[in-house]
Amino acid sequence: MTTSIKHETWPTATVIAVADVLADTSDGLTGSEIGQLLTQIGIADVEASSKRKRLAQALLVRQGRDQASNCVIKFITEAMAPVRYRQRPDVFSRRRDDLNEVLVHVGLRVNDEGKVARGPAASTLDQAAQHANSLRAELRRRGTHPEVLAYCTREILTKNAFHASLEATKSVFDRLRRMTGEQRDGSPLVDAVLMPGLAGTPRVAINTGTTKTEEGEQKGFAALIKGLGSMYRNPTAHDPRLHRPVSDDELLELLTTLSMVHRRLDAARVNP
Asked: Are residues 151 and 89 in the same domain?
């Protein structure tokens, strides 16, 4: 969008949400970067108790003075200039996706060039997640388990669904080892910790095992994990990505399933 045209002001909540993204405590701009950018585009800096409040207040004051959102658009454009992310493309992707979840509410988006452009508008959170076209947004909407995201966020940010499916599937096997101290992997690991074995009681039990139904559920849970490993971990570890495409829709379905597995493990009982 050109800043030579006077653009209508944005709702206060939208400007605050933009500041929350760009001045995020862990992943946002540093305090010095915020100060440099404000000076660069001629916006007066302010004092505040946090980076987020500082940036939001500075933008809101200038927007109020101008009665236009040009200052906010200019700040986003400068902050998202691709040259700033030449060594950190994953940070660019993360910030753009997060900004797009906000800007979709005013019918705008940040494009691949880091510029604010017209886009579809949304009035609900579900619409925002859909229109932002962000895999991470959809994963958050689905409440994806943090154990899953911890293993594949970088791959998701770099749009690498192939390796994201591999790393996410590893999360279950790694968690079973952490829970039990077992060093095996794959099917031998699953058999050792989820099947009753000679002791008659699995080391990691997802139920009481007192009925045939619960016994079947325990065995089915073990079979599910084995199947996920066979489908997504073993082939992707050995086959070239060219011969093993994984679509975003398939990845979403896999991560949702893995989240269910982790939630069952959250409530599981670990036996000696």
From this structure: no
